Amino acid sequence: MTARKPNILFIMSDDHGRQAIGSYGSVINETPNMDRIALGGMRLDNCFCTNSICSPSRATILTGTYSHINGVTAFNAFDGRQVTFPKLLQQAGYQTAVIGKWHLGQGGVSSPSGFDYWNVLPGQGLYHNPEMIEMGRRRIYEGYVTDLITEMSLDWLKNRDRDKPFCLLTHHKCPHRPWEPDEKHARMYEGYDIPEPANFDDDYQHRASAAAAATMRIERDLNATDLKEDPPPGLSYQELKKWKYQQFIKDYLRVVASMDDGIGRILDYLEAEGLDENTIVIYTSDQGFFLGEHGWFDKRFMYEESLCMPFLVRYPPEIEPGTANGNLVLNTDFAPTFLDYAGHPVPAQMQGRSFRPLLGGQVPGDWRTSMYYRYWLHLAHHGVYAHCGVRTERYKLIYYYAQALGTPGAIDDPKPPEWELFDLQSDRAEMHSVYDAPACSTVVDELKVELGRLRKALGDEDTPWSES
Ligand code: CA
Question: pTM, whole model, 2 decimals?
Fold first, then answer.
């Protein structure tokens, strides 16, 4: 008799920066239930998205391919006729479900496929009394979205076919804006200030023009739809910035707290049912988020807070409790990893690689030492210039090619191309580009070669190249 295939519970949230997770050393909140996953398993310290916005990361996770291959470069609807890991798991005998945020378009080929059950929010979804689409049927559910997604996930687990392994994708809407807490958590953090990050008052000097041009500044760009009350009159510019930060970060952490409670309920269920031993439990987010670093909210940039995805995973048969790994892992790797655990071959078109060995404490000798990133949506939404780049364990080279190049939703207003280089060992906060430092010229040359190699290997070579 062969060993039973592991169940997979993939819990993914939206815009959850790892600075707001206890296991990652948060100084602003506590996440006891997410931490249970980390304490019982492994924390990945260098897990990156390859295009830091919602829909593209989701399409990459499903397909194991970069945006230029799966077609979701920005907000294009997903063509669900592609090969995805849920489809392959379903064909391999898994029961599959997705509950919560989908955000890959709806109707026709964009509706969830490869799932025995699905119930998803249309678009971004609402925090309170959200409409959801259950297997094509729309209805409004009374309640708070995080609790609804938790309860639907529990119901599905309780009613599943117990003779089959399962793969459940629990996709929380939170903590995506507009950060509306539930009643239970609405008064958390009242009466004191959440500490601001060290580079809260970034002046955007010593970097390419993109940082100063971005419209994601807390004091200027957070608006009435995000903040629940008007600022007190007579505040100075700096006082207004501090006031808005407290409003934003407290609501953000409140919605995270609801989710953490819900994760606890699901973990309790797995334990009570004896499912915790044979279930791979993951907590991640579709990308990171600035929580006041550089004076910003939002994501998009290849800078660390946006690039890094939290990734906590527990699977007792193979993962040592309380461990961490620093190898470079990408969201293209998720699908190959799940297929590996399920004993299913990884299709050749998937561009990632299974990191099951890393989770088991083994580092393959030929594991990647660099990663490729591209943000396509030139100037749209928060004014961020289109860019691509390469990150190694120590360095990050960013190339702002700064053009729309026909990307749907991008704005056709080219800016002069620019480069940045960060030494993450000495400048983890990415405050000072050393691209022009004579001492770094060899590193720049080597990283340009590496960026060229990755572009070619991944088949993404349409971005113009400038050496200036
Ligand atoms: Ca997101």
Answer: 0.97
